[in-house]
Amino acid sequence: MQKVIETLLIGLSTGSIYALMSLALVLVWRSTRVVNFAQAGQAMLSTYIGFEIASRSEIFWLGLVFAIAAGALVGAGVDYFFMRVLFKHATSGPAAVVAPVIATLGLLGLIRSIVGLTWGGEFKSIEAPASTDGFSVGDGTIPFSDLDVLIIATVSIILIAVAYIFQRTNLGLALRASAYAPEIAQLAGIRTARTRTIGWSIAGAVGGVAGMLVTSNNFLSPYSLDLLLVFGFIAAVIGGLESMVGSVIGALVLGIGLTFILNYVGTSLVFIGGFSVLILVLLIKPDGIMAKGKARRA
Amino acid sequence: MESWPKARPAVRKKIAIFILIGWVLLIIGDRVDELRVYQGAQMAMYTIALASIVLLTGYSGQVSLGNGAMMAVGGYGAALTLNNLGTPIWFAFLMAIVTASLFGALLGAAAARVSGPYLAGTTLALAVGLPAIANQFAFLGGEPGLFFDVGFPPERFGDEFTQYKWFFWIASFIALIALFITSNILSSRFGRTWRAIRGNSLAAELCGVHSSRMKVLAFTVSSGLAGLAGAVLAMTISLVAPGAYGLALSFALVTGAVLAGISSLPGVVLGAIILVFIPEISVALADRLGDADKLNNYLPGLIVSVLLILSVIFTPNGPGENLRKHLHKKPAH
Questions:
Q1: Interchain contact, A107 vs B113, CB within 8 Å
Q2: Which of A93, A98, A102 sits opposite B331 (nearest CB)?
Q3: Which pLDDT value is given to residue A53?
Q4: Could you say which protein family the record assigns here (chain A) (predicted)?
Q5: Cα distance from B37 to chain A (closest Cα, Å)?
Q6: Chain A residues within 8 A of B59 when measuring between CB atoms
Q7: pTM score > 0.95 for this model?
Q8: Disulfide: which of A282, B15, B26, B69 matches B110 by Cβ 3.0-4.6 Å?
Q9: Which residue of A271, A272, A294, A297 is the best one to mutate when testing the B interface, meaning the one whose CB has the most B CBs within 10 A?
């Protein structure tokens, strides 16, 4: 029984990091209709910047703040300098539909090479802001630590902040309107292009937090966030790519499920488990768990 | 079937062209040094792989970001066949196509059926997780992978005939056949149907096209081609290991296909040439700039990504398309 509870808790902590990544993907998908595979790269770049600050100042939280800022800037920059130009040019011909996706792949490669050329390929680690020793329960300790509590708390704060922005502010209204019906939003006086850039920067900031948190008890390398991207994508698909709430629920379910596989079956099956979930969701409920009724996807 | 007699002269002409290309390749293969012969084999491998992307993306309008993973499936299929059953090489290559197509059909039934970015994400996930999968199953040989040895060239070719030349012969022969078949598929009913779906899937469905089934079919055929390319790659490095089929390969393939003009089959040759020479250019650059270690690891990636981004922004349909537009002053589609 104790093992079940500790698996649940660890899964919650893992899943909450996936939640940030999948939220970032969903935010961009809603506003731009592109699954931003460069999100892993953007998060990686922000995490490296956060790592530099954190290791120089020896304050994790300062690093996190810089990672958030860097993520927001990079996100906005990607939209402003790449996506806008791309949508202006690639408008016709066989590649028009696929060009944005391919461009995000190119960006992922570009950011990875830049990071590799700047920081090199060796593993870096960020000193965790809290103890990674597990809590003691009875005579033993469980792997759930202060750090996990902190991760869950940080993610909750971020999620609440994002929810607040979207539900309670004019900016959030503009973001939702331009995602839902760009043309009508424009007629209502919303500057949709600018709103979209803001959406990208929120996504970038959220991704930066995900990168910092996942690195706080793991290593950082130019490839270390690829798996986070994949699991974030799977979580977003579980949620239907469209729904922010769905993506968070999907991420928590995925995190807990994969932790159960990790604890009861073994490390080696974690990826295959996640991939099977993706295939199953696509086969059974391709519109995701939040889909209401049947809708045609254009 | 009525159109068969009419189509025949065109097919005959195509056969003649392919035989001519093969003959030219044979002559070139005899005249250049070992390194170029080896690069020729790589080029043949890339043409097959790029053809699979052109078929999938340029014709049916879907994106696979993890074609390297599909190549791995073919490579493993071929290696397992050759190592465990001791079959002739041609059968191993055939099994590469079969394994990869079957796998592609299964994956496509889940991901290619639904429109949107699902196929891109699923294939990317597969490419990222490939090492994890290869480590999971003992018969795939884990990180070091499996040997794939097509053997020495036959004795009757003489002592002068090197191993690399043998690779080049096999690879070019396979590439010519694969391209011939692909070009026929693309100009057949299937190619037209795929283009119709890419153009407007709703309109295609109104014309009686079963669009999701055709998309899965496109992904299956494309996977088969990619698997064949994977087996050829395995041959040139005598090995099937997850490292050889990583994300970098998938990136390179997408780049090559975009540079070649995503919907132009003859363009794949250009794309393949670029892909083969990028490492060479990058090594030359790294030598000049110093700090070889970092540069050698990341410069090829940088060049590939910059090329990909620039071409996708400025010539998303390939340089050929822009040229054509310039000449005719009207879109080709």
A1: no
A2: A93
A3: 92
A4: Belongs to the binding-protein-dependent transport system permease family. LivHM subfamily.
A5: 30
A6: 94
A7: no
A8: A282
A9: A271
Reported for A172-180, long-range contacts at CB under 8 A and 24+ positions apart, including other chains, are A175/A31, A175/A199, A175/A202, A178/A31, A179/A30, A179/A31
Please, what are the domains in chain B?
32-328 (1.10.3470)
Least confident window among B86-90, B126-130, B157-161? B157-161
Structure tokens at B226: 């990619």
The yes-or-no verdict on residue B247 having pLDDT over 70 is: yes
The CATH number of residue A86's host domain is 1.10.3470
Enclosing H/E stretch for A5? helix A2-32
Cα dihedral B291, B293, B295, B296 sign? positive
Q: Considering only CB atoms, which chain B residues are within 8 Å of A37? A: 65, 120-121, 124
Torsion angle, alpha carbons of A253, A256, A257, A263, to 10: 180
Picking from B115, B135, B321, the nearest residue to A297 by CB comes out as B115
Residue A24 lies in a domain: yes
Q: What is the dihedral of CA B164, B168, B169, B175, to 10 degrees?
A: 160
Residue A290 placed within a domain = no
Low-confidence ranges of chain A (pLDDT < 70): 90-95, 292-298
Q: Are A8 and A252 in contact, with CB atoms under 8 Å apart? A: no
Alpha-carbon distance of A236 to A164, in angstroms, equals 20
0.90 surpassed by complex ipTM: no
Hey, are the CB atoms on B313 and A89 less than 8 Å from each other? Answer: yes
Please name the helix (run of DSSP H) or strand (run of DSSP E) that holds residue A135, with its range, or none: strand A134-137
